[in-house]
Specification:
Blueprint lengths: L15 H8 L13 E2 L5 H11 L3 E6 L2 E7 H7 L11 H4 L2 E2 L4 E2 L4 H11 L3 E6 L2 E7 H11 L1 H5 L16
Parallel strand pairs: 1-2, 5-6
Antiparallel strand pairs: 2-3, 3-4, 6-7
């Protein structure tokens, strides 16, 4: 049996033109995550409680019109784990990545993916007219791709290039 070529995979092959149209859609065309805002004076502990309660992976410090910073799960792991860490200190003073990178709602999904990869981010605040209108996360991108290409993504064989020595089954 010869190795499977793209034409033999049928619907498992992604149409490049369709994929190109998809990744070149503006972010405003996608369902964006809802941002969770906390005051700069909120304690680290209270901010984490809000993150956990809302099931969020980050909080934005400030408000939609004035984004002062972002605090993520990664910050918890990299900045808060010392024995003498003060969980009651204001989040703004302690940990926040100030003036976080954002992406405009008129930018494309491809640009968001490139920003994730270039800066090793998992979440980007999406802005429109200087206001935060949502979040785009790596997990959101994966969900959008799976929704847009269900047959191509969900029907992939576990090892697409595997060649069987002999035919299996009946």
């Amino acid at each position: 049996m010869s190795p499977a070529c793209p034409s033999q995979l049928g619907t498992g092959v992604m149409d490049r033109a369709r994929l190109s149209r998809f990744v070149n859609k503006e972010l405003r065309e996608f369902r964006l995550g809802l941002p969770l805002f906390v005051s700069p004076t909120e304690s680290v502990e209270a901010s984490l409680r809000q993150m956990r309660g809302a099931g969020q992976s980050c909080v934005l410090v400030g408000d939609a019109a004035h984004l002062a910073g972002i605090f993520t799960e990664r910050d918890v792991l990299t900045r808060c784990m010392s024995e003498d860490f003060d969980w009651s200190q204001p989040i703004q003073d302690a940990l926040v990545a100030r003036e976080p990178r954002t992406i405009g709602s008129d930018r494309t999904l491809a640009e968001a993916i490139a920003t994730f990869q270039q800066h090793r981010y998992r979440t980007l605040p999406v802005v429109e007219d200087g206001r935060v209108v949502g979040l785009i996360r790596v997990s959101d991108v994966l969900a959008h791709v799976a929704e847009a290409f269900p047959e191509e993504i969900l029907n992939l064989p576990p090892r697409p290039h595997q060649v069987m020595e002999k035919q299996e089954g009946g």
